[in-house]
């Protein structure tokens, strides 16, 4: 099986993970080398790691990146809006990763590396099974630790406050939990490929309005300063939100980190599967019962070495006030610091693969020397 744009040495296959999935994975590096597991986010694929995989493999690692549950060429999942959400609970996403590691014949992962929504999955892997996942790299989405006990009440007040602003707003995660979100994006008026091009562009360092900074607190007024791809206008879809910021045809053609052929891989995949599988992750995250069940781990921290890597132009670093700072305290007992990479926005491993790989390898070297 081949995908356009895969570098030499990166191959693909399918493997039963023992948890109901036949996972499509990309692999690189010597088969008996220390294992790195790479977990993508939304709306991405294992393919999103194509540029860093050869760099990590060349440093002596076996590198494996799956299409996660709800994505790509992995099968065994369903994602009708009315289906049971249980398979998309965080603990089951961790079980997916653990099952894949076991199916690979391994008992130990040198590091689990997660980007975007893959970042909290990687964090929970390290928190729940530190015996297997021996280090954690979180990318672009800080992990603030498990919810507390007693379980916090659902934060409906913030949504009412956003809607009551002079310019009424809504949080993107609440939108992603709606029945309409999948079709809004899959059948975007501008076309799926054009929607994805605009979405990837507006969250990258190529969009000049991405100048992130910490927010003063979890208030409607503070959140409303975020770009509209995070805090949307109340009556707009995501396709309508990003459309005005789409790159020109000339800008798109000049985008070296995401060529038209590479964009077509994403467009074909999401045209076939839709977005609902990935959106179900968000639905679990905003469901008070499902998310609140993780309070079982209240007070636990990631006790294996951990680090954070993101683009310097990535608003994801600060979109949840206090989460970035919490990684070094509440979330991790052995936090090795953060690296914010110039010239990259949210898609850091695609925008700046060499610098991303260098940051990961420097962290792994430090872990080996502890």
Mean pLDDT metric? 96
In DSSP terms (H or I, runs of 4 or more residues), the helix count works out at: 16
The value of Rg in angstroms is 19 Å
The low-pLDDT segments are: none
Helix content: 25-40%
**Would you list the SSEs in sequence order as H and E?**
EEEHEHEHEHEHHHHEHHHHHEHEHH
Beta-strand content: 5-15%
Quote the distance from N terminus to C terminus: 40 Å
Number of domains: 2
Biggest β-sheet: count, sense, barrel? 8 strands, mixed
Would you state the CATH class of the largest domain? Alpha Beta
CATH superfamily of the largest domain: Alpha/Beta hydrolase fold, catalytic domain
What form results from the Cα inertia axes? globular
Question: How many runs of DSSP E, i.e. beta strands?
Answer: 10
Give a summary of the structure in a few sentences.
The protein is built from 16 helices and ten strands. The chain has 370 residues and is an alpha/beta fold.
Layout of helices and strands, plus pairs?
Elements: E1 11-16, E2 22-28, E3 35-39, H1 53-58, E4 62-66, H2 90-103, E5 111-115, H3 118-128, E6 136-139, H4 156-163, E7 169-171, H5 172-176, H6 181-186, H7 192-202, H8 220-223, E8 231-233, H9 238-242, H10 249-253, H11 260-273, H12 276-286, H13 288-292, E9 306-311, H14 323-326, E10 335-341, H15 348-351, H16 353-368
Parallel strand pairs: 3-4, 3-5, 5-6, 6-9, 9-10
Antiparallel strand pairs: 1-2, 2-4, 7-8
Task: Please describe what this structure looks like.
The protein has 370 residues and is of the alpha/beta class. The protein has 2 domains: 11-147 and 297-368, 3-Layer(aba) Sandwich (Rossmann fold), CATH 3.40.50.1820; 156-279, no CATH class. Helices cover 35% and strands 14% of the residues. The strands form 2 sheets. An 8-stranded mixed beta sheet has the order 1-2-4-3-5-6-9-10, with helices on both faces. Strand 1 (11-16) and strand 2 form a beta hairpin. The longest helix is centred in the C-terminal third of the chain and has 16 residues, at 353-368.
């Amino acid at each position: 099986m081949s995908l356009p744009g895969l570098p030499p040495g990166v191959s693909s296959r399918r493997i039963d993970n023992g948890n109901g999935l036949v996972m499509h994975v990309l692999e690189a590096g010597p088969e008996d080398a220390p294992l790195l597991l790479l977990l993508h986010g939304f709306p991405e694929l294992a393919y999103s790691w194509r540029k860093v995989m050869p760099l990590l493999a060349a440093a002596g690692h076996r590198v494996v990146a799956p299409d996660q549950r709800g994505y790509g060429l992995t099968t065994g999942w369903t994602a009708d809006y009315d289906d049971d959400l249980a398979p998309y609970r965080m603990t089951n996403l961790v079980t997916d990763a653990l099952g894949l590691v076991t199916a690979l014949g391994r008992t130990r992962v040198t590091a689990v590396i997660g980007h975007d929504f893959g970042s909290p999955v990687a964090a929970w892997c390290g928190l729940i099974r530190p015996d297997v996942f021996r280090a954690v790299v979180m990318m672009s989405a800080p992990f603030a630790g498990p919810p507390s006990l007693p379980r916090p009440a659902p934060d409906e007040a913030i949504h009412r406050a956003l809607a009551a602003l002079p310019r009424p707003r809504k949080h993107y995660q609440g939108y992603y939990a709606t029945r309409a979100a999948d079709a809004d994006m899959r059948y975007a008026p501008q076309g799926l490929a054009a929607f994805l091009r605009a979405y990837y562009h507006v969250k990258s360092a190529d969009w000049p309005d991405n100048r992130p900074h910490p927010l003063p607190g979890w208030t409607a007024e503070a959140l409303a300063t975020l770009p509209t791809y995070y805090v949307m206008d109340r009556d707009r879809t995501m396709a309508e939100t990003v459309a005005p910021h789409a790159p020109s045809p000339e800008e798109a053609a000049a985008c070296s980190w995401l060529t038209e052929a590479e964009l077509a891989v994403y467009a074909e995949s999401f045209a076939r599967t839709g977005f609902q599988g990935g959106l179900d992750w968000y639905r679990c995250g905003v469901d008070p019962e499902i998310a609140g069940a993780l309070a079982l781990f209240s007070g636990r921290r990631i006790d294996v070495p951990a680090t954070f890597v993101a683009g310097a132009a990535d608003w994801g670093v600060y979109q949840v006030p206090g989460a970035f700072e919490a990684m070094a305290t509440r979330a991790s007992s052995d936090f090795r610091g953060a690296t914010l990479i110039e010239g990259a926005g949210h898609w850091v491993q695609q925008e700046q693969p060499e610098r991303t790989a260098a940051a990961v390898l420097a962290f792994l070297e430090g872990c080996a020397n502890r």
